[in-house]
Structure formats: C-alpha cells, structure tokens
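Teaching note: in complex prediction, the entire set of molecules is handled at once rather than each chain in isolation. The prompt given to students was simply: 'Predict the structure of this complex.' The entities are:
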Amino acid sequence: MTRLRSPRWSTVLLGALAVGWLYPVAWTLTNAVRPTADIYRAPWDVTWPPMLGNIGEAWSRGELGTALLNSTLVTAMTVGLVLVLSISGAYALTRLRPPGRALLFLVVLAPLIIPTEVLIVPLFSMYRALGLINSLPGLALVNAVANVSFATVILAAYFRTIPRDIIDAARMDGAGRLQVLVQIVVPVARSGVMAVAVLVAVFTWNDFGSALVLIQDPDAFTVQLALTRFATFYATDQGLTFAGMAIVILPPLLLFLLLQRSFISGLTASAAKP
Amino acid sequence: MASLRRFGRDGAIDLLFLAPTLVLLVVLLAYPLVSGIALSLHSARGFELTGFVGPDNYVRAIVGDAVFHRSLVNTVVFTAAAVVLQIAIGLLLAVFVADVRRGRTLLVLAFSAPFVLATVAVGAVWKFMYAPYFGLVPTVGGAFGLDTATVAPLADTGTALWAILAAFVWRFAGFTMVVYLAGIQAISRDYYDYAVLEGAGPWRRLRHITWPLLWPQTLALVVLGTIGTLRVFDLMWIMTAGGPSHATETVSTYVYSTAFRSLDVGYAQAMAMLLLLVILALTIVEYRLLDRRAEMASS
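The expected output is the structure of the full assembly:
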C-alpha cells in the first residue's frame, strides 16, 4: 500500500471514488442552472443548455446582493483582525520572551476548548446590552475569537522555522521588535500568513451559528442566513434553493482552487502540536 | 539587579505583542464565561434574571430532563463515531493517495473540497438526497426493491443521526486525509524498503510503520475532532432541527432552542456549562492517554 510500486487499479478506484465524492457538489452546481420543474421530474439529470432563470430569481428574492456584501464585510474585518492578532501573538510566543510563555500559549488556545456554542447565551445578553445585535463588526469580533487560536498555532509553526540567528543579527544592528516582525518575520513566513488568511476567510464566510443568534435584522443577514430563507420560505422551490446555494458556495470554492497550496499547507499546520 | 530589571522591562514589551489577543479573550471569552456561570445559577424570565437558585438548573438537567440526557448521549455517540470514521477514512485515503504518482493533486483537491462548503449548503443538499420519492438514497434503495416512498433516513428515529453523520464525515474526512498525507510524505522511504526486503506485506507495513509513525497526527486529529464535534449544531439545525422526536438533538441544539425558543436562559446556560465540562474532561483524558502512548512508542 504505502510507498509500494503503484498498482494501477488503486489509482483508478481512487479516481472513481473522487468523482463520487464530488457528486453532491457537481449536482448542486448543475441543478442551479435547471428549471425547477425539471429538477423534480428528473433530479439526477442535466439540462442543456443551462437556464439562468433561477439564478436571477434567487439573487433578487433571497436578497443575495445585500447578503453577499454583508458577508464580505464581516469576512474582511475578521481576516484583518485575526491576522493582526495572530501575527503579533505568534511572534511574541515563538521569537520573543514574554514572562510566563507556556501559560500564555494555553490562554491563547482557550477558545478551542471553550467554543462559542457554550457561551452564545451570555454573548447574546452582552451584545443586547451593548446594542451590538445586528452589528457586522460585532459579529466579526465573535468570529475573530473563534479563529484566533488556530491562526496563532499555524503561524507559530511557521515562525519557528525562521532561524533565531537572522533575528538576533537584525536586533544587534539596532532593529526594534516591530521592525524585525514587519521586515523579516512576516516576509519570510508570508506563505503561512497567506494560509491563515485563506482559512479564516473560508471559516468566517461559512459561519452559521453565531450569525443565527447575533443577527436578526434581514438587512444585516449574512449569506448563510439568507440561504435559510430558501429552506423556510421557498421550501417547495428546490430550483431556487440550488441556485442560492451555488451562489453562496462558489466564492470559497474558487478561493480554495486558486490558493490550494496555501490552503492545504495551512490545514496541515493546524494539526501541528503547539 | 540592573540586568534583572532590564529583563523585566524587555519581557513587558514582549508581552505587549500578545496584548491585543489577550484583551479580545478577556472581553469576549473570560467575561461571557463568568457571566455564563452566574447566569446558570439564576432563574430568568426572558433575558431578565429573576432570582438566585443555586445549583437548581444543574440538578434539573442532570436528574430530571430526559431530553437533555438524550441530547448528551446523541452528542457523545455522534462525536465518537465521527472521530473514528474520519480517522479511518482519512488514513485510508491518505495511504492510497500517497501512492499515486500522477494526478495526486487532483485527488487531494477532490477529497478536501467538501471542507470549504458551508454547512447550510451541505445540510440542504444532503437533505435533498435523503428526501423520499426522488432523493438519491430512496432511488438507490428503490433499485434494490425497497419502496421509494418509505425510505426516508432523516424521518426515521433509528437512522436520522447516522444519516447526518454521513454528511458530517463526508465534509471533514478530507481534512484528516490532508494532515495524514503530509505525515506520510515525511516518513523516510528507507523504512518501507527495508520492510519489503524483510517480506512485510502492505497491511503489516501500515500496521507497524505508517500507523505508529503517524501517532502525533492521530493525537492532534483525535483531540481536535473531539473538541470540534462535541459542539455540533449547524448540521442538525439545518437538516432536522433536532428531530424526529429528539433523535438528532445535540446539547448545542437543545441549548439553542431552550434559550431562544423557550426563553429559559438560566437553564439553557446550565446545560451549556455541563457541555463545557464534558469537553474539558474528554480533552484532558484523551490528551493524557494518547500522549502517554506516544511517549511509550518513542522510548
């Protein structure tokens, strides 16, 4: 099996399995461009030429334009914030010497063990008192908490590969901590920064649980909340649902395909032992 | 003395780089945690606290609520099954994919693509595949002579949780595969060449070389998978909303409906705190057990 002369049949089987694996994705994308009646008559067929009617209708009836804008804003804010926090945090934990470093690492990992789900009720109370319900920056803050731990773990793994000699030499030449971070550490570890940015973007775009609780005004709906409109209001119109889903899953899919290398290396590093 | 003070000041400046993260965690993690503990010890009407009740909410959940018990069992069973299946499927995929010379990247992309799909979309698509009459599962079942109208995995209390599990594992097995694949590619070829010389077959090479050397990855995947799955909410909420008759109720879905539908927030938070205790306990136990085994293997 492992590292043995490659038997062709296993490659063929794997290929077939991969096609089956992707079937639900392909099915969603093809049904998005079919008339609803066709989907019910023959759910497993393909209609040619593709019909864009449901896409347009899903866009307007699901108010996807607003939702895409809201999701883009939340995602951009979360990615920006998490990058600042995790870059400077991972730098402090791996290449500086703050007092109590081991304990600080545990503190940074706390959100992994204390997930948003178990704090959603007090978070809702707090947000209500502060008037942050329906606030997109407010939602971005909660997403930042959910993402900052693994982002810091990944970047710590990348930063550890930077030889201390380089940093020490720069410090001897009079460079400050921030200067070393900006001019040496980040450029050297830019693939790690990229990986974190992609992962945080995808996770935030796909966040459903915290948005469900913290966003109630339809004008502030993210794409995931907008999708639930199809499931509840237009449950009988599967064509619209498929079209809406295709619009919402395409941005992360394209990002994944374009930046696959960053994505995969980020995933690998996220399981690294801190 | 002077050098010590200088070290102290340097350390303080080093700490400043962590300060933004620490501030965020105090405001949005520590504070809600403390106020959540307080909330769980109170009775409430809507989101207004009406009185201190001590451990009553906890007693009610532990002793008197069959739905909470059901949700806890569902959550733990679902998590155990999900972690084992993700490890098994991810490892098998990685072992076979590592062996492919041409088209490996395409295979990796195909198997990991579901990971970037939104849960809302995954839930809706799988729900449609399970739908009676025209869904994929009833259609395949029909081909084997089952009545297509009665094959409805999500509507049956005996199968609903497992039907959701399939969608869950489909989404996450690619992640496990990616982590294992990187581990396998870091293993020296010499081990395998030597094993082949000694006449070890594929199974024995997997059992005695690949699996033990991948133990750090397995440790991380088991712990991350457990933490990540015990909180499971989205997929249940989309596919069944906890039904039929609580067959797919998890602690998180029950906490959500208790807090935001029944508006019984003190009680909901007590159950959330119990879930947190389960997460903490299982994480510590797993880490101890698996880490000890890793030490034994490496010594």
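Point out the following to students. Chain B touches chain A through 104 residues (CB under 8 Å). Chain B has 14 helices and two strands.
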